[in-house]
Amino acid sequence: MLKYLYQNYFFPFHKQILAGLGILILILGFFATKLEIDASAETLLLEGDKDLEFSRTISKRYATEDFLVITFTPQEDLLSSKVLAQIKLLSSELEALDLVSSVTSVLNVPLLQSPEKPVKELLKKIPTLESADTDKKLAQKELTSSPLYKEHLVSKDFKTTALLVNLITDQVFIKMRERREELLELRRKKQITAKQMEELEVVEANFKNYRDHMRELNHQNVLKVRSIMQKYKGDARLHLGGVPMIADDMVTYVQSDIETFGLAVLVLLVIILGALFREARWVLIPIAICVAAVVAASGILGMFSWEITVVSSNFISLQLILTISLVIHLTVKYRELLSVKPEATQQELVLETVTSMATPSFFVVITTISGFSSLVFSQILPVINFGWMMSIGVTLSLVLTFVIFPAVMLMLPKVALKVASKAESTFTSHLAGVADRFSKVIIGGAIVMVLFAFSGSFKLFVENSFIDYFKSDSEIYQGMKVIDTELGGTTPLDVILTFKEDQKATVEVKENETETAYDDNLDSFDEEYETATYDEQYWFTEYKMDKVKEVHEYLEKQPEIGKVLSLATMGEVGKVLNNGRKLESLELALLYKELPKEYRKIVLDPYMNIDNNEVRLTMRIIDSQEGLRRDALIKRIKTDVAKILDPEYESFELTNILILYNNMLNSLFNSQIKTLGVVVVILFSMFLVLFRSLKVALVAITVNIIPVSVIFGFMGWFKIPLDIMTITIAAISLGIAVDNTIHYIYRFKEEYGKTGDYLQSMYNGHKSIGTAMFYTSMSIMIGFSVLVLSEFIPTIYFGILTCLAMFMAVVADLLLLPVLLVKYKPLDKIEIEKTQE
To answer: Left if phi > 0, otherwise alpha if psi is -120 to 50, otherwise beta: which for 827?
Structure first.
């Protein structure tokens, strides 16, 4: 059938088909320019995660703003007039930016202990460093000792301070996102109407356009902040941090890697192909097909507004791999036919090349798609999209290879080989000899590899640390490191503690009220209390404060946790102001009511919500701590805090970025482990269909499982974490490994059908298809080795692990696979001959 189609419909019109395809590629090339990159935090969240919904509710409830952090380490004393003037000037320049709402610094935070005053007197006039009568020595003492500011606003050694650049909350974006989420939830539950589906399409388009606009504004804002910082680097050391900066820098890194390493891999492929084949046509044709495949795939993604994320950042490099693999197999097959049939016409050679390679190439694509299909079962949209991207990409590679290669070859004259076929197959023939003579050693080595993989898999751990995504000498790493070690940690985590309505705390405060009739120290505050609302007056209870303090103190004792802030922090400050006696309930109510709004926004509002009867304890995790295990920390906190609280009177939840990313990773890990088993079954079924032999299918699946297992063993032994990038390596390894296995077994069957001899079939297979496998693997490994030069650690890991996967796959296919075929003799000559007929 395929032969008939090529002869009657393709060959007579190959020039027109090639021209039409060229026009289509140009059109897709236009859409490829619209391909965008999205490395925002949104791309790393779990679709439909209840914790995500809760996190957004808390963020809205406590009016938390996005912010940038600038660490400022001056050469002179931090409180010198010159340095304070620089901080003031820097703050004013930052506040002038359109997206900045305010800047919090040592200059404008309330100094509640400089000097220490009774609460009532303090509330009349709260000083700051900018106040004329502020004592700088007392201010320094407070900044370095107050739980509000130490290791948060200033470092322990008082040499570094932080400026919090608060960004304007975009209410338009929030409303658009909320409506989009409402409609998406209805679609997930299959409760959406036709009218709402139409609205969803409009909302999603508007949301994307607005988000892209805001992302560009954020990028420009980060550039402007860095430009302003640059002016002060002569007198101080400054670093920039914060989630908006990390997201913006990650886009830059991903974009740079796509452009730089996509081109670098292409250049290396040119060099490798030139060295292997030593003829211009065998360089230009494969490269042309690779470029066409990348442009076509990118154009389709751009047309449908799919975006490149951190997960899919190596999409182009992978597309090159899969395409070059197909083209090299065709090239080697054509050259092999030319060497054994020099009298054949060009049309005959091309026809036999494409028809003989069509079946194994088709199954290569199907099994590769099966390998990547495990990603589609994830609940993380960028991972799902990556699976679809690669499936679309490899399908395009197959179609374009089997159209462009024969069309171009028909337009070129037949040329004698410049390199003898025997010379090409010398190395792979030697490997056949190794497989023949050392079969027991090879099987023993495979067993050792399995043990290596098995033992290493127990050392695997799931982690996602942004600070570890960047090299230690990079600006982004250094900034995050300073914040992490000097200013209380990096990744935020919150404990939301909710008090129940029917709790003993309300009774307790009324009992205290009648017993004490107010302490003498409170008598002078009667008027203020009378004006306080009932909720405020009775909300601050000793029971609540004690519970908050107990949880707060527990969190502070955890070595992985940096700075902890809560109502207990304000309680400690109040204790100092109250001559060592903790503030009573009504004193706290007075403080809440009378504290100026701009200061209450800093010291109280982020940690309590009377309307919802809850408190918020915020902390930051020390991301750079060696041996940090985030999932274990979260589980420990949940267990221990549950023991502290009385479920009859209060409940709690953990939230913020640490929880959301941990949920995402655990979901991805679980889905990958579960679906990889399904993928193995699918691949095994495909091997059965293709090779029509249970024994051959078992041999094939064994040879493919070992390289993937070794990858996990390598990661475990070398302490490479399973994160959102590396966890996809299993799917990629399966997708790559099956290609050569199918080609080799398919050719082995052909040779066995001719000779009826297993050993001779192995030697013949190594001389022919073994050469193509070796060339393909070498091209891929050398091409991907360039990724280790990236500044982005996930890209480096991706390059290393892909090279390792390719190396293990080709070793297994050229050594273990033939040994198993020869040893277990799974083929039947009569069946093969019938199949060929």
So the answer is: beta
What is the pLDDT averaged over residues 516-543?
A: 55
- What would the mean pLDDT of 540-561 be, rounded to a whole number? 92
Q: Is the peptide bond before 115 cis (omega within 30 degrees of 0)?
A: yes
Decide: 495 and 641 in contact? Cβ < 8 Å.
Answer: yes
Residue 493: strand pairing partners: 619
CB 338 within 8 A of CB 417: yes
Whether the full predicted model's pTM is greater than 0.85, yes or no, is: no
CB-based contacts of 171, cutoff 8 Å, min separation 6? none
Q: What integer is the mean pLDDT of 686-697?
A: 86
- Chain-centre distance of CA 47, in angstroms? 15
Among 391-400, 414-423, 538-547, the range scoring the smallest mean pLDDT is 414-423
Interacting residues of 374 by C-beta distance below 8 A, sequence separation 6+: 387, 671, 672, 675, 676, 678, 679, 730, 731, 734
Please state, in angstroms and rounded to a whole number, the distance separating the CA atoms of residues 101 and 67. 10
Residue 128 phi/psi, 5-degree rounding, is: -130, 175
Closest CA to 431 of 823, 9, 813: 813
Q: How large is the average pLDDT for residues 278-289?
A: 92
Please choose, from the candidates 373, 408, 375, 396, the residue with its C-alpha nearest in 3D space to the C-alpha of residue 323. 396
Q: What is the mean pLDDT of the segment spanning 395-399?
A: 94
CB atoms near residue 272 (< 10 Å):
21
Distance CA 289, CA 543 (A): 72
Closest among 62, 149, 83 to 114, alpha carbons compared? 149
Residue among 471, 603, 558, 451 at smallest CA distance from 146: 603
pLDDT in tens, 114-126: 887 777 777 778 8
* Average pLDDT in the chain: 85
What type of residue is 288?
A: A
Cα–Cα distance for residue pair 99/242, rounded to 1 Å: 15
